Amino acid sequence: MRTAYHQELAYFQDRLGDLAQLAETAIQEATKALLDNDIEAARGLTAQGETIARLHRLVDADAVTLIARQQPVASDLRMIVAGLRMSGDLDRMGALARHIAEIVERRHPTPAVPEALRSTIAEMGELAQRMAAKTREALANQDPAAARKLDAQDNAMDRLTTALEPLILACEPPVTLTEAMDLALLGRFYERFADHTVALATRVAYLTGAPQEDLSV
Amino acid sequence: MRTAYHQELAYFQDRLGDLAQLAETAIQEATKALLDNDIEAARGLTAQGETIARLHRLVDADAVTLIARQQPVASDLRMIVAGLRMSGDLDRMGALARHIAEIVERRHPTPAVPEALRSTIAEMGELAQRMAAKTREALANQDPAAARKLDAQDNAMDRLTTALEPLILACEPPVTLTEAMDLALLGRFYERFADHTVALATRVAYLTGAPQEDLSV
């Protein structure tokens, strides 16, 4: 009975790892679709988003079943509750990647990102993807120092976000109103994606035994 | 023992209700601060946001303690897990109200919303607040039909969101790039706030016994 239980726990963790991999791939592909103005790739993200949402629901259902059937001890319960929250973060990360792709679809055939801002958006996209990769590894290795290791990248994302508005306003030739609106939203989507990777890393710390406040990030 | 347990459960539910009340007040005050260009009120929202975040952490900690100590039966477990998710939604709703207030602070003394768009933004704000109020009532009354009752308002919010971009582009005199960016973000914040009220209402349905898929909205 306990062996089956531990298999279920391990399976639950594996699925979380799958979700983390999907979210990482999604942001990478969304950024590529955005910079390449690739409408087919952007549409592909919608299907991928559904896969992520479905897996998220399965993970959540598993978590509730595990708690109800197995009445887990404290440390396992922490893991499952943290897993429930992580599953929610990863689902949102998938949704944010999809929102980026939706902007590509909405503006096609016009590229959403003007030439002068390509490098900034590329940098935000790459940073978001690297943060997702680090979080996925931290989850796989149950690394309690994961959140701290994201600090430098999180600060870099904050700097990029703060710099974005002046860059948009200083563009030559000036951006259109539509471009300005899209860029403001894109900046917001990458920033939120990064926030979720930090929240995930903090939850990894929680499930390895960090103070209780960390649960509710 | 069981009596103490049921008191704790009732207390947990009451705190969720408090959070729902705070989120509703926050969006109302944020919209007012935005339309009145009231910097003091906007700053007040930051303090209020901290109150919401703190209560959210308490609710989460209570939920984990309840599960660990009481090993609740299936229906109570559903309620507590749904409560954990609701607490997360309400915390995000508070954060979105704060983001609206931050735009007021960033642009002050210039009003963030140009005259021509005041009525649309006022309508979004009022709708968001009414949706929050309905969700709070549904939570208090454990109304399984809550999500359905939000349908009309959710559709109205979708229409307003879709209409916003053409309205921004058609403004006379034309909006500035900064105004366009702020308005795009404001539209997004109200839309997300409304999404969370729908998610909350769906969780109320779940905890009263609706199908399991509803958990993971």
Radius of gyration of chain A: 19 Å
How is the CATH topology of chain A named? Answer: Methane Monooxygenase Hydroxylase, Chain G, domain 1
Overall structural domain count of chain A: 1
Greatest interface and its participating residue counts: A-B, 37 and 36 residues
Distance between the termini of chain A: 34 Å
Number of helices of chain A: 7
Average the pLDDT over all residues of chain A and give the rounded result. Answer: 90
Q: What is the level-2 CATH architecture name of chain A? A: Up-down Bundle
Q: What brief labels describe this structure?
A:
elongated, homodimer, disordered C terminus, 7 helices, mainly alpha, Methane Monooxygenase Hydroxylase, Chain G, domain 1, 217 residues
What does it look like?
- The structure is a homodimer of 217-residue chains.
- Chain A starts with a helix and ends in a 10-residue tail after the last helix.
- The first copy, chain A, has a single domain, classed as Methane Monooxygenase Hydroxylase, Chain G, domain 1 (Up-down Bundle).
- The radius of gyration of chain A is 19 Å and the shape is elongated.
- Chain A is mainly α.
Give a topology summary.
The structure is a homodimer of 217-residue chains.
Chain A: H1 2-36, H2 39-70, H3 74-107, H4 118-141, H5 146-149, H6 151-170, H7 177-207
Q: In brief, what are we looking at here?
A:
Chains A, B: It holds the Pfam family PhoU. Two copies of one chain form a homodimer. With 217 residues, chain A is mainly alpha-helical.
